[in-house]
Design brief:
By secondary structure, the chain is mostly beta strands. It has one helix and 20 strands.
Length: about 260
C-alpha cells in the first residue's frame, strides 16, 4: 500500500470514522435474487407485503405485489416464508380495510390461507389481503463458512471506477468505492468520505452474504465500538444483522467491517 506521509497520518487519524457513515454503492453483482422469486417487499407505508420480483436493477428491485398488478421499485426485500403456523395480518371480510392479527392454519398452491384471527374468527383469505407481521429477517444458519477476503497478496483482481469494494486498512476490510484507476494503484473513497490510494492487492470484491461473520458499530451505541455480528440478509444498500446477544439491527454497509 503506498501513501504519502500526509495521507498516512490522515488515514490513521480517521480510522475510527470509516464505518460511522452511510455507504450505498450498489452491490448488484453480489445479490442472489432472480426474476420470479417469491418475496416480501417493504412498501412505502413501512409494512412488508408478498409479491414477486419482476426485474432487478442497480438500485433495487422491481416488484409486483399480490395485492395489485402495479410494478413498483423496492429497496428492501426478504424471502417469502408463510406456511401453516405463521403469524400475519389480514383484512377480514365484512370488517372494512383494517388489518387484524392472525395465524395461518392451512395454505394451498393458489396463495389462499385459512386464517384464525386472534379474536377467534376463522376465514379464508388470499395473500393479496395479507401482510407480514413484524420484519421478515432471514434466520442465520447455525453453521456457516466464514466469508472473508483473502489476506493482501498477489491476487490479480481488476476493478473499474465506480465499483463497490472492500478495502484493507489497519487489519480490517471496510466498504469503499473505486474513484480512479491508475497504473500502480486505485483511488478509493470510504463511506465516511475519507479518500486514499490502495494497491490492487489490498482490495477485494464484496464477499459479505447471508451467514457472514462481521463486526458492526451499532447506531444505538453513543460511542464507537464494533460488536461481533452475523449477516442475516443484505441488499444493495442495507444489511440485516444479528449480534451475538440476539439483538437485531438494520444498518447501511458503512457501519460494518470484517477480518
Amino acid at each position: 500500500m503506498t501513501y504519502s506521509s500526509t495521507q498516512s497520518a490522515t488515514l490513521l487519524a480517521a480510522a475510527t470514522m470509516i464505518s460511522a457513515f452511510s455507504y450505498s454503492s450498489p452491490l448488484f453483482a453480489e445479490i442472489s435474487w432472480k426474476k420470479g422469486d417469491r418475496i416480501f417487499a417493504q412498501s412505502g407505508d413501512g409494512f412488508w407485503y408478498p409479491g414477486n420480483i419482476s426485474s432487478l436493477h442497480a438500485k433495487g428491485f422491481n416488484v409486483k405485489y399480490d395485492a395489485n398488478n402495479n410494478v413498483v421499485n423496492a429497496i428492501k426485500i426478504a424471502p417469502y416464508s408463510w406456511k401453516p403456523g405463521s403469524q400475519l395480518q389480514c383484512t377480514m371480510e365484512g370488517a372494512g380495510s383494517g388489518y387484524f392479527n392472525g395465524k395461518i392454519l392451512i395454505t394451498d398452491a393458489y396463495s389462499v390461507f385459512k386464517v384464525r384471527f386472534d379474536h377467534g374468527n376463522t376465514q379464508y383469505r388470499r395473500s393479496s389481503s395479507c401482510r407480514y407481521l413484524g420484519t421478515p429477517y432471514t434466520p442465520a444458519p447455525k453453521q456457516t463458512a466464514q466469508y472473508s477476503p483473502p489476506p493482501p497478496g498477489g491476487n490479480n483482481r481488476k476493478f473499474n471506477a465506480g465499483d463497490a469494494v472492500l478495502a484493507y486498512h489497519t487489519g480490517y476490510w471496510y466498504p469503499a468505492k473505486i474513484t480512479a484507476v491508475r497504473v500502480e494503484d486505485y483511488g478509493i473513497k470510504f463511506g465516511g468520505g475519507l479518500e486514499a490510494n490502495h494497491r490492487e492487492s489490498h482490495l477485494s470484491r464484496i464477499v459479505w452474504g447471508q451467514g457472514s461473520r462481521i463486526q458492526c458499530d451499532s447506531k444505538t451505541d453513543s460511542g464507537q465500538k464494533y460488536y461481533n455480528a452475523q449477516v442475516e440478509a443484505i441488499n444493495n444498500k442495507d444489511i440485516w444483522i444479528i449480534y451475538t446477544n440476539g439483538v437485531r439491527e438494520t444498518l447501511t454497509h458503512g457501519y460494518c467491517r470484517s477480518k
